Amino acid sequence: MNSEQTQVAIIGGGPSGLLLGQLLHTVGIDNIVVERQTKAHVLGRIRAGVLERGLISLLEQAAVAERAHAEGDPHDGVVLGFNNQHTRISFSDHIDKPVVVYGQTEVTRDLYEARDKCQGRTHFSVEDVIIKGLDSDRPELTFSINGAEHLIACDYVAGCDGFHGVSRHTIPADIRQEYEKVYPFGWLGILSETPPIHDELIYANSDNGFALCSMRNSNLSRYYVQCSTDDNTEQWSDDRFWHQLQQSVPQDFLCNLQTGPSIEKSIAPLRSFVCEPMQWQRLFLCGDAAHIVPPTGAKGLNTAASDVHYLFNALKDFYQSNNTTSLDHYSQHALARVWKAERFSWWMTQLLHQFPEHTTFDKRMQHAEFELLQTQVEAQANLAVNYVGLPY
Ligand code: RFL
Ligand code: PHB
User: How far is ligand 1, taken at its centre, from the CA of residue 14, in Å?
Assistant: First the structure.
C-alpha cells in the first residue's frame, strides 16, 4: 500500500479541483489531486467559453491569469435573436464589468501548468476512489492505479469530481436532498476553424429551435443548435448542422457566416440539478459534483468557481486562524449563490428553446418576454447583471 499525507485531498482534476488546489498552494496549504482520467483526456474536453469577472479574479489570485489576460476577449454585450428579430443587451449600460471569452480547456491547461511548476502532487487514472472516516479528524481516501493500492490521509476532502463522481453519493441518502429538472432536448456543439459570425455571442430562439453562435478566437468558432435527446453525432453531418444553424439564426447575420469542416462535434443533455447540503462532516462538494445548470446562461464553470472561492476562504480561515465558522457555513453561503445561477440558467433556457409541449400560448409568452428585453431597461439590466455574474 502506497500511503501519503496531506491537509486537503481533492477528488477531481477538472477546473474546480485544480483552481482550489492552486489557491491553497498560494497560502501554503498542502493538497493532493486525484483524477480518474489521464491529463490528455481532461485537456481534450471542449466545454465552457464565457468567464465572469469573479472567475478571472480567482485566476489572478492563483497567479494563473496571465494567458487569460493576454488572449481572452472581453465582451461588453450579447445579442438575443427571436426568429428574424434581434436585440443587443449591453452590459456596460448597467454594470461596470464585461465577461471574458476564454475557453475552459485553456483555463484547465493554465492550471495544470502552474500545478506542475510548483510540483503539486496529482495522481491520474485513479480507480475505485472510496472516502472513509469523514466523522473522524483524519479522513482517508483509498484508490488504485494500475492495480496498485493507494491511501491518502488528510484533514478535509474536497469533492470536485463532477456530476458523475463519487463524492456526492458519500453523503447518506437520508441527509441528501436532490432537486432536478431534465429538459426535453440537448445541444449539439461543433468547433470549426472559421472566423466567428459576429464579434459578440448570439443566442437565438426560432421556430426551428435554439442556436448559439460563440467563439474561441478570431479563427475558431463554437456553434450550437438544439437537438433531440435521442440524437447521436453520426446523425448530424456537417452539412445538416450548418443548415440547421442557418434556419435558426436571424437573417441579418447570415451574410457573415463562414462554414467549414467541424473539428469537434458533441451532444450535451440539458439538466438543472442541485444537491443540498454541499457539506457533510469533513467532505465539501464544489462545482458540478453538487449542481448542474443548462449551459444557456454560461453559468456552470462560473458557479463552480464561486464554490471554490467560498471553500478556499473557509479553509484559509481554519488553517491561518483556527476558525471553523466559515467552514460550518460553507454549504449555506455557496447554495445561496448557486440557486440564483440556477434560476437565471433555467429562465434563459425557457426563453430561448422550442419545447415539445409548448402551446401557441407558451410561444407568445416567449415573444412577450423577448419584447420586454428589447424595450424595457429594467429587463435589460436584469439580464446584464446576472449574465456578467452576481457578486460573491
Ligand atoms: P468537471 O469539469 O466535470 O471535472 C470533474 C473531474 O472529476 C473527475 N472525476 C473523478 N476523479 C477521481 N475519481 C472519481 N471517481 C471521479 N469522477 C470524476 C472527472 O474526470 C473530471 O476531470 O467538473 P468541475 O471541475 O466542477 O467543472 C465544472 C465545469 O466543467 C462545467 O460546469 C462547465 O463546463 C459547464 N459549461 C459552461 N460553464 C460556464 O460557466 N460557461 C460556459 O460557457 C459553459 N458552457 C458548459 C458549457 C458545459 C457544457 N457541457 C459539455 C456540459 C458548454 C457545454 C456544452
Ligand atoms: C461556449 O462558447 O461554449 C458557450 C458560450 C456561452 C454559453 C454556452 C457555451 O452559454
Answer: 6
Query: Which pLDDT score, from 0 to 100, does residue 122 have?
Result: 98
**At residue 330, what are phi and psi to the nearest 5 degrees?**
-55, -50
295 is catalytic: yes
Q: Could you report the per-residue pLDDT of 287-298, keeping only the tens digit for each?
A: 999 999 999 999
Could you tell me if 266 and 337 lie in one domain? no
* Chain mean pLDDT for the chain: 97
Which domain range does residue 15 map to? 2-73+99-180+271-347
| Catalytic entry in 203, 224, 310, 319 | 203
pLDDT attached to residue 1: 87
Report whether residue 222 contacts ligand 2, using a CB cutoff of 6 Å: yes
> Do 243 and 126 have their domain in common?
no
Judgement on whether residues 171 and 242 belong to the same structural domain of the protein: no
**pLDDT tens digit string along 177-188?**
999 999 999 999
The answer to whether residues 169 and 193 belong to one domain is no
Radius of gyration for the alpha carbons in the chain, expressed in angstroms and rounded: 21
46 falls in which pLDDT band (50, 70, 90)?
confident
* Other beta carbons within 10 Å of 119: 8
The predicted-structure confidence for 255-285, as pLDDT tens digits, reads as follows 999 999 999 999 999 999 999 999 999 999 9
For cell 491537509, the residue is 7
**Model pTM above 0.85:** yes
**Nearest residue to 49 via CA among 191, 261, 250, 195:** 191
Ligand nearest to the CA of 80: 2
pLDDT for 48 equals 86
Residue 47 has pLDDT above 90, yes or no: no
Tell me if 49 CB under 6 Å of ligand 2.
yes
For the domain that residue 207 is a member of, what is the CATH number? 3.30.9.10
Give DSSP secondary structure letters for 74-93.
EE-EEEEEETTEEEEEESTT
Tell me: do 56 and 122 sit in the same domain: yes
Q: What region does 389 belong to: left with phi over 0, alpha with psi -120 to 50, or beta? A: left
For residue 343, the model assigns a pLDDT of: 98
150/32 Cα distance (integer angstroms):
12
Whether residues 293 and 209 share a domain: the answer is: no
Ligand 2 mean position to 221 CA, how many Å?
A: 11
Q: Is residue 341 part of a domain?
A: yes
